[in-house]
Amino acid sequence: MMSNLFSIFDPSTNILNLSINWLSTFLGLLFLPCSFWFIPNRHFIMWKFILLKLHNEFKTLLKNNYFQGSTFIFISLFSFVLFNNFLGLFPYIFTSTSHLSLSLSISLPLWLSFMLYGWINNYQHMFIHMIPQGTPMILMPFMVLIETISNIIRPGTLAIRLTANMIAGHLLMTLLSNMGSIIPSYLIIFLILIQILLLILESAVAIIQSYVIAILSTLYSSEVN
């Protein structure tokens, strides 16, 4: 039963023994030139307003690390994850963000680049960051160990947080859908209402998780300098 349940996340479309489900990850590239093709409408204006708000917030978090275009990396990360999260809510569309192979491929290179930049260009600050100010001498070795472990597990926590949240909602929606054939007919309307509410909740989770991974990546970037 559990294997069948989790099989909803398996790539199932194959051509010449190659899975093409992952191509849905890059469908967002088709919508990038839309602003140049059409007259801006209210949806486009609202999206630009959201991106401007994110730009200002990321610029504030980066502080001294900010340079022209630096927030574009994290805004692109937010847009990429948000699009794939929402795409997975549609029927028969592969949810790429529910796989660690994608989420870890996003978080690990980002974290590794931040760490390499910090240790190569500003190693004194990186050493200082391992020991909070006012730490007693006897606790310093333990604080270094704790800070080192917390830094190492950062890409894993970013990836697992995104994947687990996407898997949990999809599993719950699948379980409720499978109940449609076993519950009495007069309860179908309640099941549909629950599914609608859960879909709204999943839409909120898709937005929140996109924001979380972008804001945490920005904070990690601001710590290395």
Structure description:
- It is a single chain.
- It is built from 9 helices and 2 strands, in the order αββαααααααα.
- It is mostly helical.
- The chain has one domain (7-224).
- Helix 5 (100-121) packs across helix 6.
- The radius of gyration is 21 Å and the shape is globular.
- Keywords: ATP synthesis, CF(0), Hydrogen ion transport, Ion transport, Membrane, Mitochondrion, Transmembrane, Transmembrane helix, Transport.
- It is found in: Membrane; Mitochondrion inner membrane.
- Its main location: membrane.
- InterPro entries: ATP_synth_F0_asu, ATP_synth_F0_asu_AS, ATP_synth_F0_asu_bact/mt, F0_ATP_A_sf.
List the keywords.
two-stranded antiparallel ribbon, 66% helix, 2 strands, membrane, mainly alpha, 225 residues
In short, what is this structure?
This protein is mainly α. The protein has 9 helices and 2 strands; from the N terminus they run αββαααααααα. The protein has a two-stranded antiparallel ribbon with strand order 1-2.
